[in-house]
Write a structure and sequence with these properties.
CATH class of the domain at 70-193 and 203-221: Alpha Beta
Radius of gyration: 33 Å
CATH superfamily of the domain at 70-193 and 203-221: Glutamyl-tRNA Synthetase, Domain 3
Helix content: 40-55%
Shape: elongated
CATH architecture of the domain at 70-193 and 203-221: Alpha-Beta Complex
Largest sheet: 3 strands, antiparallel
Strand order of the largest sheet: 1-2-5
Distance between the termini: 55 Å
């Protein structure tokens, strides 16, 4: 969610200002590469409608847009920094660095490289390289002074250089670290603004020093507030956090998720919660981004999703419901007895009856299954309403069959007229008769409006279900 929210803020900022949104795949950390991750990123952005002006699949003047295809450029800059004395080769082994970290931890010394290789002479460097010792390139952090930035969200931020270590810019396998690759790419891709997570703020002095050493003009920075769980710790899977694509699978609408994520750290005012994509673009600015962490509230997202569902035309909801209804039953779809593909004409008549109760599209099968199955399953005792017994409930069903069989027009108005009249003739409250019929027709105590449901189910199906319910009570 944090990555998608960051992408969204960048996208809104670019669209608001008429700029370009660049999608760059930062895949230089080969140890952390996950198969299929790039495809998942593109799929999530496409589903949310966050189109990019340049990037994978959209050629532009600053490609390629995968950092793994730009390695020679990073290596050239690393070598140039070494030649000008702004960086150096480091030959320290992993074992030595591990012992150094352990020693620092024991003495509660701030972690960081001790600069053992910083003062090696050219001859010493050459001697080490002749031995075939693996080397990394470290940046020479200035030991004095301060590094400062005017962050668009956090204001003026300053760091003492003496507290910063000499960080790696090129690894022993020839691949760059995030620090070097992003500085080089931001310059060569003409990036004007970098909006990224708050956790990258401590790295900003490193990047500013690299910009200065190479001779690049740095972009403007905006470090976004963290997304927190309900307990105010960083949002994680233990809070139920999941990916955008998983939210799609759970039945959330992309427009609802975009709206909700936009409010995690940004606001239009103190009261507006449901905001269209067009209004988000129109009003988005860094001035209204908060410094404080934003709480991810699953219930509020679900509420907002329901608001968006209720705002859509029934035919659009029907279209979006189809994949959820046609899932296998064990994955939350309709029972296996229901034929696939779903009859969309029939579904369009059902949607208005369940739309107000849908919070997510995945609620659709449970709310509508009785419209599709041959016969709903239920406990016969549910047919007997309050202050009724088995005999009176059975009589109500049998008399309903007689009256409905004579009905000339099977529409909600005609159904209501005849059944209200029947309730009076039987000496029943309308709620009693309607309750018996509701269970017989849907298998549920609570269901969509009875007469509208009967109209959609049709006369043949309704008569068969009422007849079956009467037989169930006759057997008791």
């Amino acid at each position: 969610m944090g990555n998608i929210r960051t992408a969204l803020f960048n996208w809104l900022f670019a669209r608001h200002h008429g700029g370009k949104f660049i999608l760059r795949i930062e895949d230089t950390d080969q140890d952390r590469l996950v198969p299929g991750a790039q495809a998942a990123i593109l799929e999530a952005l496409e589903w949310l409608g966050l189109d990019w002006d340049e990037g994978p699949g959209v050629n532009g003047p600053y490609g390629p847009y995968l950092q793994s295809q730009r390695l020679s450029m990073y290596q050239r800059y690393a070598s140039s920094l070494v030649e000008q004395g702004a960086a150096y080769y480091c030959f320290c082994s992993e074992e030595r660095l591990a012992k150094l970290r352990e020693w620092q931890a024991q003495r509660k010394v701030p972690p960081g490289y001790d600069r053992q290789c910083r003062s090696l002479t050219a001859d010493e460097v050459e001697s080490q390289r002749q031995k075939g010792i693996r080397t990394v390139v470290r940046f020479k952090t200035p030991p004095q002074g301060r590094t400062e930035v005017d962050d668009l969200i956090r204001g003026h931020v300053s760091w003492e250089n003496r507290l910063l270590d000499d960080f790696v810019i090129l690894k022993s396998d020839g691949w760059p670290t995030y620090h070097l690759a992003n500085v080089v790419d931001d310059h060569h891709m003409a990036i004007s603004h970098v909006m990224r997570a708050e956790e990258w703020l401590p790295s900003t002095p490193r990047h500013l020093q690299l910009y200065q050493a190479i001779g690049f003009e740095p972009p403007l920075f905006a470090h976004l507030p963290m997304i927190l769980g309900p307990d105010r710790s960083k949002l994680s899977k233990r809070h139920g956090a999941t990916s955008a694509i998983e939210y799609r699978g759970k039945g959330y609408l992309p427009e609802a998720l975009v709206n909700y994520l936009a409010l995690l750290g940004w606001s239009l005012d103190d009261r507006t919660e449901v905001i269209s994509r067009e209004d988000l673009i129109r009003h988005f600015s860094t001035e209204r981004i908060s410094k404080a962490g934003a709480i991810f509230n699953q219930e509020k997202l679900t509420w907002m999703n329901g608001v968006y569902i209720r705002s859509l035309p029934p035919e659009e909801i029907a279209r979006r419901l189809v994949p959820f209804l046609e899932r296998p039953a064990e994955m939350g779809g309709l029972p296996g007895e229901v034929a696939r593909p779903i009859d969309q004409g029939y579904l369009k008549r059902i949607v208005p009856l369940i739309q107000d109760r849908l919070r997510t599209l995945s609620d659709g099968p449970e709310l509508s299954d009785f419209f599709f199955v041959k016969r709903p399953e239920y406990e016969p005792s549910l047919l007997v309403q309050k202050e009724m017994d088995t005999q009176s409930a059975r009589k109500a069903l049998e008399m309903s069959l007689q009256q409905l069989d004579r009905l000339g027009s099977w529409d909600r108005a005609s159904l209501e007229e005849v059944l209200r009249r029947l309730a009076a003739e039987l000496g029943l409250k309308t709620g009693q008769l309607f309750g018996v019929l509701r269970v017989a027709l849907t298998g549920r105590m609570a269901a969509p409006p009875l007469f509208e449901t009967m109209e959609v189910l049709g006369q043949v199906r309704c008569m068969e279900r009422i007849r079956q319910a009467a037989l169930l009570l006759a057997e008791r």
